[in-house]
Design goal:
Elements: H1 9-21, H2 30-46, H3 62-75, H4 83-96, H5 110-114, H6 116-126, H7 128-131, H8 139-162, H9 168-186, H10 195-217, H11 222-234, H12 239-261, H13 272-275, H14 284-295, H15 307-310, H16 314-322, H17 338-357, H18 360-363, H19 438-453, H20 458-472, E1 477-480, E2 487-490, H21 492-495, H22 511-526, H23 536-549, H24 560-568, H25 584-594, H26 611-625, H27 628-632, E3 636-637, E4 649-650, H28 655-668, H29 672-695, H30 724-743, H31 747-761, H32 770-789, H33 797-816, H34 824-839, H35 864-880, H36 899-903, H37 917-922, E5 925-929, E6 933-938, E7 951-958, E8 961-968, H38 1025-1032, H39 1034-1059, H40 1082-1089, E9 1116-1118, H41 1125-1133, E10 1139-1148, H42 1155-1160, H43 1172-1181, E11 1183-1186, E12 1225-1230, E13 1234-1239, H44 1243-1255, H45 1261-1270, E14 1326-1331, H46 1342-1345, E15 1367-1373, E16 1379-1384, E17 1401-1402, H47 1407-1425, H48 1432-1447, E18 1448-1449, H49 1453-1461
Parallel strand pairs: 10-13, 10-14, 14-15
Antiparallel strand pairs: 1-2, 3-4, 5-6, 5-9, 6-7, 7-8, 9-18, 11-12, 12-13, 15-16, 16-17
Helix pairs in contact: 1-9, 2-3, 2-4, 4-8, 6-9, 8-10, 9-10, 9-11, 10-12, 12-14, 12-17, 17-19, 17-22, 19-22, 19-23, 22-24, 24-26, 25-26, 26-29, 28-29, 28-30, 29-30, 29-31, 30-31, 30-32, 31-33, 32-33, 32-34, 33-35, 34-35, 38-39, 41-48, 43-47
Length: 1465
């Protein structure tokens, strides 16, 4: 930079020598000179106004002043014992220097005032004598000298600041003087507590601050800059040099950023005093010039790693030659500070890089603050001792938060990683949007950083050997330098002899600085923007440096360099860096050291850093490379240094290693946030493997991972293979085990684990092991039992949230694996847990206990929402497992029939008359049972039933939906009553009237031989007629005989009369069967047979049945004559039995920042330019449905859950296949407990929302409001469920309610449902945003796009959604075909759900599935965290109770029976 300019080093030397031999008193004996000085200076000192009033000087001629200055010059060189005299000399000169001030002191001689610059230059040169170190002085006298030096430095600095008279020559003299005193004090080796050590920081700070001032007043010449650079090279063994250099650089950088990037760029915050370093008048151009020159002032910092270079000066040679035992120059004790100095230099460079990247708001606070003079000043000490002492301003430790590790020596806060910015979960520190390109930063710093990153590496050692070999070819020689005649010893053999270095200076002691350098490089490359090009030479050098630094030693320890790389490389594999995958084996080896082991093996215990942050960064890297093996499969990874293919890996060979890292890391992780991230990554891996085997391999058994030679050192894991089934088994076992053992007390980790288990349940794996699934369900049930059994103080909202989530997870497993309920043990386990949730206790605590029946138990559930969750699971088990989706498809879990639809098939209903629901409802009788279920009974058979049996058609509206049943009363099963006679007279044979002749014979009552039998006592037990006559008398017998005779006469008369009539047997007519009865009271029969009409008598002993209380009737009759009844029934039908959610999908082209631009992307003319993968992703989110035919959730409140017949008008199909804005089509997905609509808004959405809000055209607002306010829903099960007809979800009986339930007070059942309770938080809005350029997420117009995302629910919440409440899932397509995820959402304990994790890299195979699961889990967590949330079935139950209160008829038992005998209209 200054190669063609002459150095002023010789002039500095001349000035120094001239000042010492300038005075004529040097010609006389020292004692004589001392006496002259004492007498003269004492007199001059009395006129200064220090002890008495100041008087005008008596020196009026130039000769007089010059003579006095000659004396003072000599006085300044006196021994320090003459302290008072020297002090007077200093006072005189300091007073006389005020001649350069705007107002000189009165005691300044007139000649000096008249030619202030000339005399000032002489005074400045004379001051040199004061700073010359005196040999052999005591510590006390040295301190006195230091005090006087401080006074002079302060005076000179003040004069430079306020003087308006100084000319260029004076400025040059002042700068050369400051260089000279720095030279004389700092160039020699450091000796503790000598004057150089005490003044070190002060003289440097004055030099730099005055130099900056000169840049404004009189910009130094190139020769001056060259001299400064040469001088600094001689002072590099001083800690203070690098500290002050950093301080000035940061101050200049702060100013540089202000005018280079504008006020919007993050400000570099320095200490207040450092902010005043830059003179006010410095122009922008001057700042830029000065900044670059100061940056290059100390040369290449990597020279600090070579004690031979630092100790080249003549002062070190002199020390080595005079050492009593003989020594090399590089063995001086002061050089033991070099590793710390090197670290400080690297920290300073790192801080400047951070400032250019916009990290100054966080990572640099405290770097220059706290009143410390030095921004990077080391606070940790090396083995050599302290880091240097400061002046009165002090040198307080100023930790640099960005450094990953501390240097050798005692642990210190300077290397703590605690203050590192979080790089995940939405808490990361964002880089400045307007930051310079990576190439620009590297142009400035690359040389130093790349060299520093190689320190101690293989390449560095090879270069040192090469240099040593070249040097050994020359004889050892004495090389003379022109630089002040210094002598440098060239000792080539020592370069190749590391044993000659002290143990504190071996190359490994510089590792902290090396770690700082490679960490800084990682930060620079991680700042790459989308589409930004980085020069290949920089990439190549960076990859070489990383490969060197990632070398794993045999001891497999984590050193500072490795920690620094991991901490700052979180984004490295998700930035489309060319060729970055060559580093994959090295990074995996590093992750194998950091993640799988609970106790990290450290290379040195002096490393101080936050292990949790290190693991978090390592997990971020792991999440960004997890999908690479299945993405690239058999593609080889080339080794950077080895040309042979022996060590070449293929991507698929790394899969098993990645899986082992993930599993082992999850096994030992203790931090909640890290565990959350690992759980998300685990589901990604299993999902990716399952989908890969289904799609890529056509369902074949895919175990592509061949254990390569590079994996030999791994222990055999639970399963060595890593196909989808093996991963499923390992993941299930591991997560269930840790959930029970370690995670059950942490809300977020428990929720993440249960979300992962729900995700695993929905995977379709052909080899699914029933035993594994059974074990998983058992574990989840055990988890519920444990949580419920915890002592009362532990029962909190969070605890109950985990129990609710566990019930939902159990439902997911049973829905996807219905065969589990065929297992007796599994069924019993699940039902016991359901019983525990509903009642609070089990009937049998142990298998040997006597069961306690339901009516004997006291209901004490853990909480109301736990009971609701258990009720929901029970309903799913009884109604949905194995039966979902029904014939109606996944759109509905209820019947699609209502009164109107049934009446259209009824014989008595004229089709034209079935136009209104009121007329249809009038045909039904309505009863309510259990205060929660409405029975609508139709007593007429439907038109297709010709069998005249008692028939009743029921519509059952309950908490879990609406169901339609038709029942017949049959006395025989259909199989035995299948033969029917429909003829009027089936006919029979004609009777034969000819009677055959009968032979009269006497009838015998006993056999012939009866008289021969010997009678016994029993034979006489029946008395004979004679005995009766004797006992009762003759009259009674005679009366009996008379009755018999009369009867015989009457019978004979009757027969005679019959024979003469037309109806006699000879003219008999056939019997005709009675006509079939078509009139049944079917409703009465049904209610009676099902036990609803059992009127029980009161029990006076039971307080609940005392006379004051009305009897608890099993049946309540509803009055359907009210005009509002039909509307209320419709509102109930519009209350979905499942949760529902909406996700809004946007496409952002590169650089777009306005809502109008983004919405316009979905227009027909713009959609052609979309990334083709965007359309593919849309198709995997849900099923395209026609809104006009769809009866589930459509994304809009007004047309959801309605029974739709044929569309009123056939809408023409749209030409744009991506048009899912909800006007005609929408993407829909549902499972047994939840629904979700994916809406892609266009300009239509804004117009539609405006119309509905302005006109209030939404009908039945109560129904809409209550439905939507209460159910912000999510859906969770993933199955390609068959879509069905258009009409669906109007009513739903069962909800596999995995949706979240909130704690509700037990009194809630009495609440009035017509006015929905206001939510504690606005309904969640979830956005899915596809980014062409990743950086555009910073400018995403969230607030403006809310207007396009109205559902109609907002009308009922007096709180519109805010941008801060929205969750945004950003998806950015990388050049590799993979997708990078960015999550953004409101801060909160439960904001971020799995499986997606901020920063994760996905394959396109799984993006739709994982996005859907994440959106639904986010919604579920919001419901769990909302105190006022009520599950869908609870809302329906409350609505039924509201209908009961409004329309019930208080009938007596007699009135009720009479009502049953009345026919409906």
């Amino acid at each position: 930079m200054y190669s063609e300019w002459a150095s002023l080093s010789a002039q500095i030397t001349a000035n120094s020598c001239g000042a010492q031999c300038f005075s004529v008193l040097n010609k006389f004996p020292a004692s004589a000179g001392r006496e002259v000085v004492v007498s003269v200076v004492k007199q001059l000192g009395t006129n200064l106004g220090i002890t008495q009033n100041a008087e005008p000087s008596h020196l009026v001629k130039d000769e007089e002043v010059k003579w006095c200055m000659d004396v003072i010059c000599f006085g300044l060189s006196l021994p320090l014992q003459e302290h008072e005299t020297i002090k007077d000399c200093v006072n005189v000169y300091c007073e006389w220097l005020t001649a350069l001030h705007p107002q000189p002191r009165i005691s300044v001689p007139k000649p000096i005032c008249e030619d202030a610059n000339l005399y000032a230059r002489q005074i400045i040169n004379h001051f040199h004598n004061l700073f010359v170190p005196r040999q052999g002085e005591s510590a006390d006298t040295i301190k006195r000298q230091a005090v006087l030096c401080h006074r002079v430095l302060r005076t000179l600095q003040q004069t430079a600041q306020i003087s308006q008279l100084m000319d260029r020559q004076t400025w040059d003299t002042l700068l050369l003087f400051l260089l000279a005193i720095n030279e004389i004090l700092l160039a020699p080796p450091t000796v503790k507590d000598d004057v150089g050590d005490q003044l070190c920081e002060r003289v440097l700070s004055v030099l730099f601050e005055v130099w900056l001032l000169a840049c404004v007043r009189s910009f130094p010449s190139p020769s001056m800059w060259k001299t400064l650079q040469e001088s600094c090279a001689m002072w590099r063994h001083r800690v203070a040099l690098v500290d002050q250099w950093n301080r000035v650089n940061l101050a200049l950088t702060a100013r540089l950023l202000e005018f280079s990037y504008g006020p919007a760029f993050p400000q570099l915050k320095n200490a207040d005093e450092d902010g005043q370093l830059i003179p006010i008048g410095m122009s922008n151009d001057c700042v830029a010039q000065t900044w670059y020159r100061f940056l290059r002032m100390i040369g290449n910092p990597t020279a600090l790693c070579s004690p031979h270079i630092i100790s080249k000066s003549s002062h070190f040679v002199q020390w080595a030659l005079t050492h009593e035992k003989g020594a090399e120059t590089h063995q001086h004790p002061c050089l033991q500070q070099l590793p710390q100095i090197f670290l400080n230099a690297m920290k300073g460079i790192s801080s400047q890089v951070d400032a250019f990247l916009g990290l100054s708001k966080t990572s640099l606070i405290g770097l220059t603050g706290g009143g410390a003079r030095n921004a990077i000043s080391s606070s940790s000490t090396t083995n050599a001792g302290s880091t240097g002492t400061g002046s009165g301003e002090g040198s307080a430790p100023a930790p640099a938060p960005t450094t990953p590790t501390s240097t050798s020596g005692p642990p210190s806060a300077s290397s703590s990683i605690n203050s590192l910015p979080l790089t995940s979960m939405g808490a990361g520190v964002e880089l400045a949007v307007a930051r310079p390109k990576c190439n620009s930063i590297l142009h400035v710093f690359h040389e130093w950083l790349f060299e520093a990153a190689h320190i101690g590496g293989d390449t560095w050692r090879q270069n040192r050997k090469k240099q040593a070999c070249e040097a050994s070819k020359r004889p050892s020689s004495m090389i003379m330098e022109h630089r002040k005649g210094s002598i440098s010893l060239s000792q080539p053999n020592s370069l190749n002899d590391p044993q000659s270095l002290p143990p504190t200076l071996t190359i490994d002691k510089y590792e902290s600085g090396r770690a700082e350098a490679i960490g800084t490089l990682c930060k620079i490359f991680c700042a790459k923007k989308t589409g930004e090009e980085i020069l290949p030479v920089y990439l190549a050098r960076f990859y070489m440096a990383l490969q060197q630094c990632l070398k794993i030693t045999e001891s497999r320890e984590c050193d500072e360099t490795l920690a620094s790389i991991l901490l700052h490389s979180s984004d490295l594999f998700r930035l489309d860096l060319d060729g970055i995958n060559v580093l994959l084996p090295g990074f995996i080896a590093a992750l194998e050291i950091v993640l799988p082991d609970k106790d990290l093996k450290l290379k040195t215990q002096s490393m101080v850093f936050n292990r949790t942050e290190l693991r978090r960064s390592a997990i971020n890297i792991l999440l960004s490379i997890m999908v690479l093996p299945l993405h690239y499969q058999t593609l080889p990874i080339r080794d950077l240094t080895c040309e042979t293919s022996e060590k070449m890996f293929t991507f698929i060979q790394l899969k098993s290693r990645l899986m082992n890292i993930l599993m082992n890391a999850l096994q030992v992780e203790t931090d909640a946030q890290n565990t959350h991230m690992l759980l998300g990554g685990l589901l990604l891996c299993v999902q990716d493997a399952v989908t890969f085997e289904e799609t890529e391999l056509g369902g074949g058994n895919a175990n592509l991972s061949h254990n390569s030679s590079g994996v030999q050192h791994h222990d055999a894991n639970l399963l060595s293979s890593d196909n989808a089934h093996a991963l499923f088994v390992r993941a299930t076992y591991l997560v269930c085990h840790r959930l029970i053992s370690s995670w059950k007390t942490d809300l977020n980790v428990s929720l993440a684990a249960l979300e992962l288990l729900s995700g695993l349940a929905r995977l379709h794996i052909r080899e699914t092991d029933a035993l594994e699934c059974k074990r998983a369900v058992k574990w989840i049930c055990d988890y519920i039992c444990y949580q419920c059994s915890r002592p009362p103080p532990a029962h909190s909202k969070d605890l109950h949230s985990t129990i609710v989530a566990a019930f939902q997870c159990t439902a997911a497993w049973l829905m996807q694996h219905p065969y589990l309920l065929q297992d007796k043990d599994c069924l019993q386990t699940v039902l016991e847990v359901v019983e525990l949730g509903i009642s609070g206790t089990k009937s049998q605590s142990k298998g040997t206990d006597i069961p306690k029946f339901k009516d004997e138990k006291e209901l004490k559930p853990a909480s109301m929402r736990v009971r609701d969750a258990a009720e929901n699971l029970l309903t799913i088990i009884l109604e949905q497992v194995g039966y979902f989706p029904s014939e109606c498809g996944p759109e509905s879990i209820s019947s699609l029939l209502d009164e109107l639809a049934l009446m259209k098939h009824c014989n008595s209903m004229v089709p034209a008359a079935a136009a209104s629901s009121e007329q249809a409802i009038a045909k039904f009788k309505y009863f309510v049972t259990e205060n929660s279920t409405i029975l609508a009974l139709l007593e007429e058979p439907l038109g297709n039933d010709q069998d005249p049996q008692p028939t009743v058609t029921l519509l059952i509206r309950g908490p879990f939906g609406r169901h339609a049943w038709t029942m017949q009363l049959r006395h025989l099963p259909r199989s035995k009553s299948g033969i029917k006679y429909h003829a009027i007279n089936p006919g029979r044979p004609i009777p034969m009237n000819d009677v055959t002749q009968r032979l009269d014979s006497e009838q015998k009552n006993f056999p012939d031989g009866v008289d021969k039998v010997q009678p016994c006592v029993a034979d006489y037990s029946i008395p004979t007629i004679e005995q009766m006559r004797e006992q009762y008398g003759t009259a009674v017998i005679r009366e009996l005989e008379s009755l018999l005779e009369n009867q015989s006469i009457h019978e004979k008369l009757a027969w005679a009369e019959a024979d003469t009539s037309a109806d006699s047997l000879s003219h008999a007519q056939e019997c005709v069967p009675p006509t079939v009865c078509h009139e049944f009271h079917a409703a009465r029969l049904f209610l009676s047979h099902f036990g609803f009409l059992g009127f029980e008598t009161r029990n006076p002993q039971n307080p609940a049945e005392a006379l004051g209380n009305p009897p608890q009737r099993p049946l309540i009759v509803l009055d359907t004559k009210s005009a509002a009844f039909a509307a209320d029934l419709d509102r109930l039908d519009k209350l979905s039995a499942r949760t529902h959610d909406s996700v809004y999908v946007f496409y952002v082209k590169s650089g777009q920042t306005s809502a109008q631009q983004i919405i316009a992307n979905m227009g027909e003319e713009s959609s052609a330019s979309h990334d083709p993968h965007f359309a593919s992703m849309l198709q995997t989110l849900g099923w395209p449905v026609q809104v006009s035919e769809h009866s589930g959730w459509t994304g809009f409140a007004h047309n959801s859950w309605s029974l739709k017949g044929t569309p009123e008008e056939q809408l023409k199909s749209t030409a744009n296949e991506l048009n899912y804005n909800g006007s005609q089509r929408v993407l829909y997905w549902a499972d047994v407990s939840s629904e979700i609509a994916f809406v892609v808004p266009t300009t239509w959405n804004l117009r539609y929302n405006s119309d509905t809000c302005d006109s209030g055209s939404i009908s039945s607002t109560d129904q809409i409001g209550s439905s939507n306010v209460w159910t912000r829903g999510e859906a969770d099960s993933a199955a390609g469920l068959a879509k069905s007809k258009s009409r669906n979800l109007s009513l739903e009986l069962d909800t596999n309610r995995r949706d979240v339930k909130e704690p509700v007070p037990p009194t809630r059942r009495k609440g009035n449902v017509t006015k929905p309770t206001l939510l504690a938080q606005a309904p969640a809005k979830i956005f899915l945003v596809w980014l062409e350029s990743y950086e555009d997420y910073l400018n995403f117009p969230l607030e403006d796009l809310l207007a396009y995302t109205r559902t109609g629910e907002e009308l009922q919440t007096q709180q519109l959604p805010r941008a801060t409440d929205c969750h945004v899932i950003f998806v950015h397509s990388l050049l590799s075909g993979l997708l990078r995820v960015k999550l953004q959402g409101p801060p909160g304990r439960m904001s971020f759900a799995t499986p997606l994790v901020d920063g994760m890299v996905l394959s396109r195979r799984v993006v739709g599935n994982l996005v859907r699961q994440t959106a639904l889990n986010i919604s579920r967590r919001r419901r769990l965290d909302n105190d006022n949330y009520q599950p869908p079935h609870v809302r329906r139950r409350l609505k039924v109770q509201d209908i009961v209160q409004k329309y019930k008829m208080d009938l007596s038992e007699a009135d009720l029976l009479a009502h049953l005998f009345q026919r409906a209209i």
